[in-house]
């Protein structure tokens, strides 16, 4: 759990994912389209994969990936991100982390 929380707070937007999951890719592309480059942790490439997966599940996640943290706080998975985006709530959360064009 400590490793997950440390990694989640290392940058403004953090995405835990499995490199082979298409929903993980979709969330990453959405963030890029919104001007944000998330820090991505491919948990399936981490030697502590099982521990990270268990820690994400203990945080209350139904599925361990993709899991998104914004500002060090758990936002949720794909459903939460997409729902928040469709309701207009995602961009204000991302604004501090958007690249200036």
TrEMBL record:
Residues 13-74 form the Glutaredoxin domain. InterPro entries: GlrX-like_pln_2 (IPR011905), Glutaredoxin (IPR002109), Thioredoxin-like_sf (IPR036249). It is found in: Cytoplasm. PROSITE patterns: GLUTAREDOXIN_2. Belongs to the glutaredoxin family. CC-type subfamily. The keyword Cytoplasm applies. Keywords: Cytoplasm, Redox-active center. Signal peptide: none annotated. It holds the Pfam family Glutaredoxin. This is Glutaredoxin-C14. NCBIfam families: GlrX-like_plant (TIGR02189). GO terms for cellular component: cytoplasm. PANTHER family: GLUTAREDOXIN (PTHR10168). It comes from the Eukaryota. It comes from Hibiscus syriacus.
């Amino acid at each position: 759990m400590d490793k997950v929380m440390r990694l989640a707070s290392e940058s403004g937007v953090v995405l835990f994912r499995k490199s082979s999951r298409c929903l993980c890719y979709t969330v990453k592309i959405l963030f890029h389209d919104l001007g944000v480059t998330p820090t991505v942790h491919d948990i399936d490439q981490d030697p502590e994969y099982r521990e990270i997966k268990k820690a994400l599940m203990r945080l209350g996640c139904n599925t361990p990936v993709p899991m998104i943290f914004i500002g060090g706080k758990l936002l949720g998975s794909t459903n939460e991100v997409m729902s928040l985006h469709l309701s207009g709530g995602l961009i204000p959360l991302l604004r501090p982390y958007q690249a200036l064009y």
